[in-house]
Amino acid sequence: MSLQSAMEFVRRLREDPEFRWALGECKNKWERRRFVITQGYRFTPAELVCATSPGGNASEDRTAVIERVRRQQHGHGSYAFM
Questions:
Q1: Residue 82 falls within a domain, yes or no?
Q2: Quick one: which of 12, 37, 46, 80 is 20 to 30 A from 26 by CA?
């Protein structure tokens, strides 16, 4: 998993309307996950949160904290967005 991959994914979402449209056509979170992976992106939900944080607060340390809180609240297998 990679924070850099999440940041590249977010950048592409912002810049590529066809990519954004294709992601929006996915019917559920499993299709979204499959689409993201087949497009070559690998990241955790926490890394995605960091990549979209305002002010550019993306860091590996911040990712670790978000991931720890997410696991405490939702368990290891929980993915809210994806």
A1: no
A2: 46
> What's the pLDDT score for residue 70?
65
Q: Which two tokens stand for residue 56?
A: 């550019």
Domain limits at 20? 3-74
Is-contact 35 25, C-beta < 8 A?
no
The span from the CA of 18 to the CA of 55, in Å, is: 26
Per-residue pLDDT at 40: 96
Residue written as tokens 């690998």? Answer: 42
12: amino acid identity, one letter: R
Percent of the chain with pLDDT over 90: 43
- Looking at the domain assignment, is residue 16 inside a domain? yes
Q: CB pairs under 8 A, 24+ apart, for 28-36?
A: 29/79, 29/81, 29/82, 32/81, 32/82, 33/79, 33/82, 36/9, 36/82
**pLDDT at residue number 36:** 95
